[in-house]
Design a protein that fits this description.
4-stranded antiparallel sheet, SH3 type barrels, single chain, 6% helix, 255 residues, 2 domains
Amino acid sequence: MYSALLFSVFLAAGPCEQSGAPKAPAEPPALDPAKSYGSLYDWAGGRDNAPLGIGRLKLQGRESPWDWWLRVEIPLYGTPASVPWGWYKNGWILDSDGREAAGTSGMIETEYERMSFVVLEDRPDGWIRLRYGKPFRGQGGVAWTHRCHLEEQGLRFESWEERFLSDEISPLHFRSRVRHALRTNPAESAPRAHWIGEDHDLEPLEIAGEWMRVRVTEPSVYCAGDETRGEAHEGWVRFRSDDKGPWVWYFTRGC
């Protein structure tokens, strides 16, 4: 057990004004990464319905090793500008009462066998609310931390909009297997130009709030043979909501 006094080391000034981030009180034992490799899909609604927030945390300027999460230390706050109630450290959640293995239980795969923390809120003052794991001792699996702590670990916030518009990913597709409306303008009241079925590719062209202008190809030609020819349509789709985050995703492992 760890003394609760060790969790009161942060002063009233902002976290970035300190000489450094608060440090976790002890070194947890090593985790077996293979036995700790899961995701929020396993317990929070599956791939179709899991809440994916507004973006992710990614390593800056380098390709992340698949087990990078075993080498980070992030203080966890119940509210911005409070004292941290615990830490995510080397795959563990540490608090004043003990420790619990979290592994990647709060993460999702965003590259081939590369996991990312899900970010739920990004404030202008630098505070970020993230999902660190399953609900833990009444904390809900969600906590605040500050950009300065993440930068010390080589992490930065990347919005889903930024990622979706990059050239680093495969075509998008809707997560749920129901048809979606392609509209002429970014509004539910706009005329429907096309119904999008299950087998499709989405190429994002621009984003405006919860709406994305896309080029839809049906059937999907991604990973299809040369003989496959798709029919293209352009228009607007609603691609996200506050409760689920993005309704669209991509193939993180390629074909």
